């Protein structure tokens, strides 16, 4: 009897559709002979859907997505400055809503400089770390507001909400991950300025560290962390940090390891109460959409993370290996689908 | 009759003292024959003072500093993890208190890749931009708190406070600066997540932009901005951004342009109601303090910014030129004072 995995696919907007097409082909190919069967449902969500129907993510969409085992997402967001999207915040209403409603408290973002990939650094050294970004709290909660909007007396506030519950669970995840890697963990925050939130993060990391005496623990202010990401990225193994700092660091990390065309991510609910969601770090890039110019590698690597998350280790490893081989052999520009073809060919090897 | 400038000097802690010693020597040398006389008062403030007296910045200190025309600061902060400093937040109590009390609403941080300086990028191209960081609002206001501290039910919040008044004045400063430079201005924020604060920043930039039709205006999310800082830093001319994003971007910019040993900054009250304060971007680096290993260049360039701010254009240009010559001619390691000597020798040229 074969195992059935119900997969919700959200291609989204712009290049999201093109890269997800390749990611799906790779998924189909790698599971063709396996006993696991992926039952896919495609959800048409994003700026495109909003322009057609005025909906971003309905309760019915959410309920239906929630009934799946996992989610594969491309990218969402329309043309910047499109007046018809002025009042739609697709990012908050769709992407962040999914992360919050499905309690994706671990936003997992590996950063690895693959052989053959070239980034902007002259002497990058070996780069292989993972950012464990908190996904359900911090400045992302949407607890903001303004008064006297649009006047010279406007005051606009944003509140970062942090709970010991939320911080502890993601910190524990990061320590467990560090135990399985090189046993080095770096907390990144800004404790000298954000003394309340930062102080709590620091205290919880110190407490959990006491249970992991074999993990070397380090602390960096976020500003200093950006310096080390470009001057000494090899120093990092596992970084644990809040939602906003994690957002910033992972884009920078993506750039340093050869561009966000290669950066995959998982929005994970480790408890398994809700489906986890895998997506490339990059956005919908409307400027190059529909031209087969996008690199589907980040989406394909997100499939590898998805497979790994579902316990399909062999399949995950085959995708990962095929991508690494493809990157190592790169030369010239290829169309989106050509990169998909090459990775699929590599699966056989 | 000579013009008298009353200068408050705060060497601070660690390498702050060593770099300020050189900065003062350069200041003395460049003003030796000029008609302006600097009357200096040295304030002993920082972790050292706290350990001796338990005071961080008394009201009397503040009043006395306020009576000066300008401030030159080295760096403050003790040994990380020093248990005696556990409850002292020197950064908030001293550095940030000065910025807030003296209404330093423009935190000006030039980023230039000098000939001869080498950063981590393989192909940096030309780098010459200025970050105009807001200095008196945002997540730095200290409007945070926590309940049930130290328990598993702790909730710790931090509120970013942003006013149209505060944003408009710094945005106007940035546009004026862009008019005197290459007429390109980039707003950096995270409008898709921090919709209230980000929305107000965007609206005000759009409004002020309408008065400056000759300035090309661009917007980047902070995460994307870090990517461009390492992949295409030449695109930037003037960046205007909030207090926290400015903190992060300027450390990264410092690294990209050859290290924060070269990065100067000004905390400016453009209205002249309060003395402006000039300081290197780097910290007190207790690990290398007292060993004559620190590079005093950032402190010396901060003197150039101070001179420029006081309208002493010729003196500022002489210091700037001497530093640039010194950087271009660098080879081998030199002691802190040797770099000071070299810059002073270059002043004659
Ligand atoms: C699109 C945006 C809301 C999102 C974020 O800030 O988390 C993106 O930048 C990311 O990193 O996944
Ligand atoms: C020391 C710290 C409070 C300060 C800041 O965050 O502003 C520093 O990083 C800076 O950039 O001047």
UniProtKB/TrEMBL annotation, chains A, B:
Cofactor note: Binds 1 Mg(2+) or Mn(2+) ion per subunit.
Pathway: Amino-acid biosynthesis; L-leucine biosynthesis; L-leucine from 3-methyl-2-oxobutanoate: step 3/4
SUPFAM superfamilies assigned to the protein according to its UniProt record, in alphabetical order: Isocitrate/Isopropylmalate dehydrogenase-like
Coiled coil regions, renumbered to chain: none
Site (Important for catalysis): 140, 190
Cofactor: Mn(2+); Mg(2+)
E.C. code: 1.1.1.85
Name of the top EC class for this enzyme: oxidoreductase
Binding site for NAD(+): 283-295
Matches recorded under Gene3D superfamilies: Isopropylmalate Dehydrogenase
Domain Isopropylmalate dehydrogenase-like, residue spans: 6-343
Family: Belongs to the isocitrate and isopropylmalate dehydrogenases family. LeuB type 2 subfamily.
Entry function: Catalyzes the oxidation of 3-carboxy-2-hydroxy-4-methylpentanoate (3-isopropylmalate) to 3-carboxy-4-methyl-2-oxopentanoate. The product decarboxylates to 4-methyl-2 oxopentanoate.
Quaternary data: Homodimer.
Protein name as it appears in the record: 3-isopropylmalate dehydrogenase
Annotated source species: Microbacterium soli
Lineage: Bacteria, Bacillati, Actinomycetota, Actinomycetes, Micrococcales
Gene field: leuB
């Amino acid at each position: 009897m074969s195992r059935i995995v119900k997969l919700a696919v959200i291609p989204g907007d712009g290049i999201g559709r093109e890269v997800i097409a390749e990611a799906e082909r790779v998924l189909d190919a790698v599971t063709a002979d396996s006993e696991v069967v992926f039952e896919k449902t495609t959800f048409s969500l994003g700026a495109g859907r909003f322009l057609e129907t005025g909906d971003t993510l309905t309760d019915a969409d959410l309920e239906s997505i929630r009934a799946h085992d996992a989610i594969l997402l491309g990218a969402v967001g329309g043309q910047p400055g499109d007046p018809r999207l002025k009042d739609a915040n697709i990012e908050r209403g769709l992407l962040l809503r999914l992360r919050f409603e499905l309690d994706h408290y671990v936003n997992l973002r590996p950063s690895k400089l693959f052989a053959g990939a070239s980034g902007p650094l002259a002497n990058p050294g070996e780069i292989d770390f993972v950012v464990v970004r908190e996904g359900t709290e911090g400045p992302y909660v949407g607890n903001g507001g303004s008064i006297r909007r649009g006047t010279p007396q406007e005051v606009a506030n944003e509140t970062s909400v942090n709970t010991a519950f939320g911080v502890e669970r993601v910190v524990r995840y990061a320590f467990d991950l560090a135990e399985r890697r090189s046993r080095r963990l770096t907390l990144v925050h800004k404790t000298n300025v954000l003394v309340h939130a930062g102080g709590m993060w620091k205290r919880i990391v110190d407490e959990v560290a006491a249970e992991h005496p074999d993990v070397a623990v380090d602390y960096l202010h976020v500003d200093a962390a950006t310096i080390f990401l470009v001057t000494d990225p090899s120093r990092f193994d596992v970084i644990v940090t809040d939602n906003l700092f994690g957002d910033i660091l992972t884009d920078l990390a993506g750039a340093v390891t050869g561009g966000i065309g290669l950066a995959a991510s998982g929005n994970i609910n480790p408890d398994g109460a809700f489906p986890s969601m895998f997506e490339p770090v990059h956005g919908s890039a409307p400027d190059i959409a529909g031209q087969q110019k996008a690199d589907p590698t980040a989406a394909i690597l997100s499939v590898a993370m998805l497979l790994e998350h579902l316990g399909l280790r062999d399949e995950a490893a085959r995708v990962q290996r095929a991508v690494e081989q493809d990157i190592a052999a790169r030369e010239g520009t290829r169309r989106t689908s050509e990169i998909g073809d090459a990775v699929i060919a590599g699966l056989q090897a």
